[in-house]
Write a structure and sequence with these properties.
The complex is a heterodimer. In chain A, 73% of the residues lie in helices and 0% in strands. By secondary structure, chain A is mainly alpha-helical. Chain A has one domain. A 6-stranded mixed β-sheet of chain B has the order 5-6-7-3-8-9, sandwiched between helices. A 4-stranded antiparallel β-sheet of chain B has the order 11-12-10-13, covered by helices on one side. In chain B, strands 2-1-4 form a 3-stranded antiparallel β-sheet, covered by helices on one side. In chain B, β1 and β2 form a beta hairpin. In chain B, 44% of the residues are buried. Chain B is built from 12 helices and 13 strands. In chain B, α3 crosses α4 (111-124) and α4 packs across α5. The chains are: A mainly alpha, B alpha/beta. The interface between A and B is medium-sized, with 30 and 34 residues.
């Protein structure tokens, strides 16, 4: 007989593959990434002007930012804010919907204990993010190759270690946001409130605290430096190669690489433990 | 006759919410292998809370529960139990078939057997024709049947069905009763919670009635229904009632809608008639009538003495 965790993971992936919302989120993440990392800079380059969105970069710098050697930075550059918010929505949907539809009782009356169910769900979430990230890297590679061929530019790829590091960092950032969404879904037993709170946090609170710490209130810097978005942005900052183009929103040098990794790992563990505590201790009524 | 082994054993089981709400109050219950056991009670009596505790969805405040010799909610117990609790809950964007595949995965059905088991249970509940339609498009009755199909997927020894005929039309209810009876004859144990008394009377071997969180009676359906009553229509009715209550052979008399319902041994029917006639009372109807489980249920659940034992 197979392991309850593996069975739960398989069941979760079966659900996720057929869930339209999961594909919509992946499509939105991929399209936004392509637009901001490739389409806008390339159109600005072909029109011969930098413009407001490209922050005054020269056409040559804009073209260089879309070429294959920028694949890692272009793929995970937006993960601190918009892709992070989408990952949080995925986590909240995947876990919170079970309460909205009442299917949590269906899951928990089959075979696996509550701990195994949660572990299986989290594993499926991690796998789904890994696959989604692969798709985004693939689309970025195709697009940058197309631009390089169209503009007769050399095709140079990042080294395998850089690719692996970028992929790993991207996966950790998205997984952290997704597990935070999952924990909110389990703690609040629904979808709407976790998504609302999560998105307000990612897009509102983080920006507000960061802006205040930078401009008017230095005392907020220690608080800023433990925010998940700031740490995600700091991790992304370490993989940027070309610094002639303005980085994506949320990318910052506020904290160092090691601390950012540790902080994100802590968020991951704390969110997972909170979800496990809630799932194991509370009655399913 | 050899007594079958207990499949569900509940001792002094209690569930409290805060200091003021006692949903289930020190109940004792034994369900034996192979029987179809009816768990009756009005809405809010504590049926679903009890069943959820048997499945590990709700933690008891105190008391002991054994399900197939295991603690409730443990993998060892759940692997041998199929359940439909308080309505079917599935994924609306998946078809019936895919929902069952997902449940089969959760249940640990071996990959090679999933399609075979899913097909078999879909045929059992007569849902094969609509199996590839999305769950969201199903009628309430179809959803209910899918819930029963999911409960059967693991080929369980114990099936717990909470109000399985909710939302079914008369033909669907008849089919469901037939299915539950068949499950009982296949050696499985069925624990059926319902407030539809006719359904329980037709299906169940034994019954427990819960009210205000307490078991108020338990026994076979025949034991609960007791002996048939004597229905008497006589004029003047109040004089007839006095005469009947004075008879030592009569256990109980209660009037309803112009009739007197008399609890008396069938052997004394002629004596009752003679006593009334000799007292100058005109007897226009005298017949024996079996009590329905519904009558017993209302007697029990609306009796002030039994309501707060």
């Amino acid at each position: 007989m197979s392991s309850p965790v593996i069975d739960t993971t398989a069941a979760e992936l079966l659900k996720l593959v057929r869930r339209p919302a999961a594909w919509v989120l992946l499509a939105v993440a991929a399209v936004l990434n392509l637009i901001f990392a490739y389409v806008v800079p390339y159109l600005s380059y072909t029109s011969g002007s930098g413009g407001g969105m490209t922050d005054g970069a020269t056409p040559e710098q804009l073209l260089a930012s879309t070429l294959p050697d920028q694949l890692v930075a272009n793929t995970i550059g937006g993960f601190a804010v918009f892709a992070g918010a989408l990952a949080l929505v995925l986590g909240a949907l995947m876990f919170g919907s079970e309460y909205g539809w009442g299917t949590v009782k269906t899951m928990l009356t089959q075979r696996a204990g509550r701990g195994s169910v949660l572990l299986g769900q989290l594993t499926a979430l991690a796998v789904a993010i890994a696959v989604g990230l692969l798709v985004m890297f693939g689309l970025g590679a195709l697009t940058s190759t197309g631009i390089a061929l169209a503009e007769d530019q050399a095709i140079n790829w990042p080294g395998p270690l850089d690719l692996a590091q970028g992929y790993g960092y991207g996966w950790l950032i998205l997984l952290t946001w997704a597990v935070l969404g999952a924990a909110l879904g389990v703690l609040l037993r629904g979808v709407a409130l976790p998504i609302g709170l999560g998105v307000v946090w990612v897009l509102g609170i983080e920006n507000l605290v960061t802006a205040m710490a930078t401009s008017v209130l230095d005392a907020l810097e220690p608080l800023r430096d433990v925010l998940p978005g700031v740490n995600a942005g700091s991790l992304i900052n370490t993989v940027l190669v070309d610094r002639s183009v303005e980085p994506a929103p949320g990318v910052t040098d506020a904290v160092g690489e090691g601390r950012a990794l540790l902080t994100l790992a802590c968020y991951l563990v704390v969110a997972g433990v909170a979800a496990a505590w809630s799932m194991r201790r509370r009655d399913i009524t | 006759m050899k007594i079958a082994e207990p499949v569900v054993e509940v001792r002094e089981l209690t569930k409290r919410y805060g200091d003021h709400i006692t949903a289930v109050d020190r109940i004792n219950l034994t369900v034996r292998r192979g029987e179809v056991f009816g768990f009756l009670g009005p809405n809010g009596a504590g049926k679903t809370t009890t069943l959820r505790m048997l499945l590990g969805l709700i933690a008891p405040t105190s008391g002991d529960v054994g399900v197939l010799g295991q603690r409730p909610g443990t993998p060892a117990a759940l692997a041998r139990v199929g359940a439909l609790i308080e309505g079917p809950a599935f994924y609306p964007y998946l078809s019936g078939r895919h929902n069952l595949r997902v449940v089969a995965r959760y249940g640990g059905v071996p990959s090679a057997r999933i399609d075979e088991r899913v097909g078999a249970v879909l045929r059992t509940v007569d849902l094969a024709d609509r199996a590839d339609d999305k769950f969201a498009t199903y009628s309430l009755g179809m959803k209910q049947r899918l819930g029963v199909a999911a409960a059967l997927l693991k080929d369980p020894e114990l099936i717990v069905l909470d109000e399985p005929t909710n939302g079914l039309d008369p033909a669907g209810m008849r089919d469901m009763r037939r299915l539950i009876r068949e499950l009982g004859t296949e050696g499985r144990t069925v624990l059926l919670s319902s407030h539809l008394l006719g359904e329980v009377q037709q299906i169940c071997d034994r019954v427990a009635v819960i009210n205000h969180g307490q078991i108020v009676t338990e026994g076979t359906v025949d034991e609960l229904r007791g002996d048939a009553e004597l229905v008497v229509v006589a004029t003047p009715s109040d004089v007839a009632r006095d005469r009947l209550e004075a008879m030592p052979e009569v256990e109980n008399v209660h009037p309803t809608e112009g009739r007197l319902h008399v609890r008396v041994d069938a052997l004394h029917t002629a004596l009752v008639n003679r006593t009334l006639v000799e007292a100058g009372i005109a007897v226009t109807e005298l017949r024996r009538a079996e009590r329905e489980l519904e009558d017993v249920f209302f007697e029990i659940t609306q009796s002030p003495e039994l309501n707060h034992v």
